[in-house]
Amino acid sequence: MSHPLKNDRYIKACLQQPVDRTPIWMMRQAGRYLPEYRQLRAEAGSFMDLCTNPELACEVTLQPLRRYPLDAAILFSDILTIPDAMGLGLYFTPGEGPAFRKPVRSEADVKALPIPDPYQELKYVTDAVSTIRRELKGEVPLIGFSGSPWTLATYMVEGGTTKNFSEVKGLMYKEPAIMHQLLDKLADSIIVYLNAQVESGAQALMIFDTWGGVLSPRDYQEFSLRYMQKIVDGLKREHEGQQIPVTLFTKGGGAWLDIMAATGCDCLGVDWTTDLADARAKVAGKVALQGNMDPSILYASDERIREEVATILASYGKGSGHVFNLGHGIHQTVEPEKAGVFIQSVHELSKAYHT
Ligand code: CP3
Questions:
Q1: For the whole prediction, is pTM greater than 0.95?
Q2: 31 CB less than 6 Å from ligand 1?
Q3: What is the CATH number of domain 9-353?
Q4: Which residue numbers mark the site Transition state stabilizer (predicted)?
């Protein structure tokens, strides 16, 4: 199954090894801003119909790579596959985002949660990974992913998206022991899930901690970082003689990059509220950095996009260890041509930063 990678810039940059230019991929690069995605989704039915069909998930993963010279592919799936496989009943309502039929609210609810088998209940994911890996033919590496325990817990306890996190923070402050049981079970589920993605062909891993930034510094360490640490410690970091870089991304976590780097991960995702020069100084060579253009810049003129790319490249400075990305997912109303301008700018302007 293993083709040698034709383009390994992304892997090398994650491991801080020399590259000829800064690699780039975009969070949510396969999705609704692409007309070909919207067409396939309309034919398939729902988003989950795409995710649960390995051939369709593979097709959607490859769509952005046909349009743009990206340096990595990311598995087309969702972070909520684990809670769904635990039996919570995931569904999506247009305009309101994801929700669960059976939210987790009590100790009995937590105790009843199974650890899903990645080759049974989540077989559609591991099958999608092996299908995509085969179809990529070694062109670029495939990134597998999961949500962080804290981020998954927010959706599971709230029963969907939330503005003030009252249910999940209520449980955390009223019944911290139950919250810890839930987070620990999620960490165990994520470890087997991500290791199965690696065994199925994922060449790098990323953990999305979308909601870590809503916690106080003390609670972030106790309820989010501690469980990401458990995951980093439990992951397969090498497969078929290749190192598997691990990226942690806490949105709004710019103040905590030093303690995140101390987990032993390889790379940290950074959103646009942190300057990359400050981030680089803070992590002091321990890890690579991924990011960090505001996705809304893609609404600007071509010149403004190019200027922002130049600013971010200059901010990181010379040398390897930077993976260019947006600071969060691409918005669905962005014109696909603007993503092209963005990617082309990174290609052209980043050469000067590598010798
Ligand atoms: O980055 C990629 O291209 C890989 C695919 C991917 C998706 N979701 C596809 C998706 C990844 C990595 C995710 C992660 C994810 N899912 C996160 C963490 C990253 C982040 O954005 O902070 C979160 C919080 C979710 C939960 C989730 N799933 C939300 C909030 C939504 C949007 C719901 C909506 O109606 O806007 C989803 C659905 C989803 N996941 C879509 C895609 C392409 C849109 C589905 C569609 O309507 O076609």
A1: yes
A2: yes
A3: 3.20.20.210
A4: 78
